[in-house]
Design brief:
With 309 residues, the protein is α/β, with parallel strands linked by helices. The strands form three sheets. It has a five-stranded mixed sheet, sandwiched between helices. It has a five-stranded mixed sheet with strand order 9-8-10-7-11, with helices on both faces. A two-stranded antiparallel sheet has the order 1-2.
Amino acid sequence: MELRQMRYFVEIVRHGSISAAAKTLHMSQPPLSATLASLENELGVRLLERTGRGVVATEAGQLLMERGEQIVRESDQLTAELKKHGVGVLGSLRLVAYMPYVQTLLPRMLTAYRQVAPSVDIQILDLRPEEALAGLERGTVDVALITTSNRDLSAHLNRAAVSMQPLTEIDLVAVLPPRGTWPQAMTWADLARHPVFAPPISSRFPGLGNLVLSELAQHSEVRPDIRTVNQHQAVWAQVSAGMGVAVSVRAPTSITAGCPVTIRPLAEGQRTLTMELVWPKQRQLPESVSRFLTVARNLHDLRTDPEQG
């Protein structure tokens, strides 16, 4: 028994007439009658009885109508959902976005994406660069927003696995304990006089940890005391407690609440990270992912268009 036969039968019972069902199905009556006869022969049971006013379902026909109507309805719903997947308005998006680097960019991206894909299930993953790249290669991550201190090197190291596009520059600041007298702008030599908290260095996607190590080595005459910290929130807590200093982006109030710190600009050296849009090269992207890439690129184009201010 085919879905097409079931659909035809449901329409006949709904209308109580083969000719009326044929009009609804945009077909002539003889092929519809032939399909019904073929279905009854296949099942070995009569499904309809003819009356003076048309046709009615037999007991077996009523059972087929109950089950068949549900199957046809579910098939139509499945077809509609699959078509929505095809145009990217349904599906899922697994996005790596490491806070707080994306704190201003991500809300604008998600707002714009929701306008074109309102029913996509979005999963935000907080992963380190190596974990994000591994996920992109394995297929457990669709897109990543990753910051780098050396775009050319990051692109070269990952050229076989991922595509990259720069989105924006992220300004860095010195994060200092709340108590103390600090210069209006901090040099790397100033920072090197204290323990410096920094994220781990990355061998595949040089980031803030690599930048801190490089700048301290270049500008400081003393051997810096660099202390690796994985969680950004932990950096602010330790700096607030007077245990050292750090270089970071400005964190939102939700992170700094209860952790007062002093913020100063950096006086020299590299003072920005590049936010990169990263996606896999070696697999076909679902339409929901392609739409997100388009939204992200469009936001970047608006930001860089001189006519946009």
